[in-house]
Structure formats: structure tokens, C-alpha cells
Amino acid sequence: MLDTTHSAPNIKGVYIDGQWQQTSRQFEDLNPSDGTVWSHIPDCTAADTRRAIEAAQRAFPAWSALKFQERAEYMLKIAAVIEKRAPDFISAAQFEGGGWYGKGVYETKVMPEMLKAAAAMCYAPIGEVLPSLNGKVSTAVRVPMGVVAVISPWNMPGILATRPFSVPMAMGNTIVLKPSEETPYLGGLFFAEVMEEAGVPPGVFNVVTCSRANVAEVGDELVDNPIVKGVAFTGSAAVGRRIAAKCGAHLKKACIELGGKDSLIVLEDANMERATSAASFGAFMHQGQICMSVEKVLVQERVYDTFLQGFIARAAKLKTGNVADKANVIGPLINDQQAANVKHQLEDAVAKGARIALGGGVNGRFVEPTIVTHVTPDMDIWRAETFGPVAVVVPFRDDSEAIAMNNDTEYGLSAGIITEDEHRAMDIAKALETGMCHVNCAPINDEAHAPFGGTKASGVGRYGGRWSLEAFSETRWITLDRGQKQYPPVF
What is the pLDDT of the chain when averaged over all its residues? Predict the structure, then answer.
């Protein structure tokens, strides 16, 4: 069914200090399905960004001094507004983000959960009482840092903006959010509208948007400005390395979540229905444009043929096309550059001996669900992140070979293992160089209260629950002496 209700929202400006403000320039925000202009978005400069940072700094004392239950109440109000505004977000997820209708629905279910979990964190312990050599009351407490810059990506713009701002904001930090230039409404201005409706005090939450031409200067201001005490970045490894290096030079806290080359490991005792379903969802959800997407399916050689046949049959049912038609589960890649990268990897693999078992067609930004076999380590598709609806399927002899294949990449984000033998799965999981691993499930997993993040080139730090609390707070040692500590008599 074709969805014709895809008009863009009224863009009121950028959101700084509780006010909608205009910029001197705008840029075009395109619908990736057809290349038409979906909206016109304010194009901020470093000076605009500086004003947002300064507004956040002014708001910090009052916001951090609020009673914890009052901040929790704001988080619940924000969650309620998002739930009410779900249809607006879902439409934008289709026509600004190029996502399947169901993907937008999924994000609108997860975002409120994250905010409710953040509200719950307000009631969690923020420190501990320590023993003291001198009879003091000795405490270690977590306190908010100040202004936190959030730089969010385009692929899951709702979830990947909410995750990094929710807990830091709930605990008393103030926020400046810069969404991707590919999804400036979904990842940024939508949240500004939500904060305004929820009555969040001015300056506590600010949104700046910019074009690709201005990304460097706006990003540098967010990272380099000394007022900003912490940076949350989700995106590409190349940009993440640069931001992490700059934060290190400034001795500034950062939580960096980057890409992945994630595996689904299918053992010979696996339930094939579960295995092929996990592979299809993991590889093709949102066109494979998820950092946890299944890019390598490693299958024990005794069940390789059976699995491959079932995987092909399942994936062949997925329809590709303009997401205005809700039946099309596989929409466009976000831009021409992403499509060109996928095409290059497929051409390189085929030239070096790989075979296309399903799909392989690239029509503009639309890439068919593609399954590739006979892949070898000399092919780009083996180690480089694909970020498209493509999965390689490779047999392995034993567990040690599967572990080596999984670890043969600079990335280390997530993994999945399908088996009836939980003890064996746990042994394998312990040997995988990933920040996360899920037994009898796809690598794509996210729960608001659980630690989320990767190892190696997949990032530094963890989001979620108390791990976000640790990432975006400072620890202070505060003691109360009751006259028991004596100083040397000479003093």
C-alpha cells in the first residue's frame, strides 16, 4: 500500500536556549527513495554552535540542582510526548531516513523505553560510603559534568540520539545535540519539538543542524570548546578516531560507538528456522545499515548447504523499493556514496572468485538483498564494513576456526551464536573479540539498561544504565572529619 501522507514538518529553525532561531543559510534535506527535496534545514556555523553551548552552560546550575525526582518526571514527560508523536516520527523515518515503515515503528517503541530507564536511573545509587583510616565519613559520589555534546548518526537517528542524551540529561547534565546532515529532523529537530512540548527548561536541551559543508567547523566547536565536558559520538570509524584523538588531547571524556563487521555463528545443532530467521533479520533490517548488522554468517560445514538453502529462500521473499509502499521492507541506502561502496565491494569480491547466491543488483540507491559465497580473506568484503543489505556465508570446520574468522577484523562490536548447546556457546562467546554477544539471537540487540559498546575499532566506552552514568559523570571523594584526624605537633 502506497503511503501518500509524507509531507515534511514545518521546520521552525534551530533550537537554542528554548527558542527557535533562524540561520543565515539553509540546506536541502533529501528523500533518499527518490532524491526529491523533503525539507529545507537551517545550516549552522561554529558561531551558532557556540551560542548553543553557552546556553547549555547557563542552564546547567539550575538543572543539576533540581531534585532528582523532578528530573525523572521530565524524562517521563519526554517519553510520553514521543509516544504521542509516534506517527510524525514514523513518517519522517520513511521519507527522510529511507526506512521501512516497521523500522520507524520500532524506533518509536525503543525511544520511550530509554527515557523511562533514564528516569529510573535518577533513583539509583550515585556513590558509596568507604572505610576511613581516620574515622571520617568518607564518600565517593558521582556528580554531573556540565555540558555534553551529542553527535548522532543517520541510520537509527531516533534511538542513537536518545541513547546518548537520556541518562546524562537525567543525571543533571545539559545537552547540545548535532544530528547527521542526512537526517537532521529525525535525529535532532524532532527532539527539539518534543522538549518544547514537554516543558524542558530553556538551555537544558539545544539542537544545532548543519550541512555537510559545515560539519567540520560545527563538529570541531562541539569537541574543542572548553565549556563542553563530554562528547558522545556514534558514527564512522574514521570520524570517531579523529574525535577520540581530539578529546584525548583536551583530556575530555568521550564515549565513542563506531561500526562493526559482525558475525552470526551457526553451529551444526542449530535450529535452522531460528538460524535463517536471525540471519535474515540481522543482515537485512534497514538495508543492513546498522552497526550491529550481520555481515558474516559463519556456518559449521556439516549444515552449510542446508542453512544456505533456507537463508536464500527466506531472503528472496523480501521486497525492495520505495518505502512509500509499506510492503517494501528493503528501502534505499541513505546516499549515493553508500551505494557505490556496496557496489565496489561486490564487484571486488566477484572479480576475486566470490559467487552471488542471491541478489547482487544495484539500481541507484536500491540494493537487492544479497548473499555472497566463496568469499576469501583477500576480498574487501571480508574485513571492511559493508553497511548494506549484503551477507557473506562461509563454512567453518570447528569452533576454533569460527572464532578466528570472527576475530579477523579490526572491528569488535557484536556477535550472535545459534546452537542448542549453551555451554559450548558460552565458551565461544568468551573467546570472541566483541563488546557484546547474544546466544540464539542476532547480533542486533539493544536494551536501555544494559552495557552497549564495542572493542577494538568499534569504539571506546559504554552506553546504557549505570554505564552511561559512569561515562558522563565525575567521581568526587568527599569526607566529613569529626575531629579524629590529628596533625603532626610541629604544625
Answer: 96
Give residue 1's pLDDT.
Answer: 52
In the chain, where the domains are located: 14-258+458-477, 262-439
CATH class of 262-439: alpha beta
Architecture of domain 14-258+458-477: 3-Layer(aba) Sandwich (3.40)
Confidence of residue 332 (pLDDT cuts 50, 70, 90): very high
Report the C-alpha gap between 104 and 88 in whole angstroms: 10
The predicted model gives 419-433 an average pLDDT of 98
CA distance 320 to 311: 17
Helices H, strands E: what count in the chain? 15, 24
> Does the structure show a pLDDT above 60 at 85?
yes
Any idea which residues carry the catalytic annotation?
A: 257, 291
Rounded distance, CA 470 to CA 171, Å?
Answer: 11
Give the DSSP H or E segment for 72: helix 68-84
Q: At what angle do helices 159-170 and 68-84 cross, to 10 degrees?
A: 160
* CA proximity to 468, closest of 450, 443, 444, 454: 450
Residues 300-322, mean pLDDT to the nearest whole number: 98
Residues pairing with 207 in the sheet: 15, 177
User: Do 14-258+458-477 and 262-439 fold alike per CATH?
Assistant: no
Contact 163, 127 (CB under 8 A): no
Structure-block grid coordinates of residue 258: 563506531
In terms of pTM, does the model score above 0.85? yes
User: Which pLDDT value is given to residue 314?
Assistant: 98
Cell numbers representing residue 140 in the block: 565517593
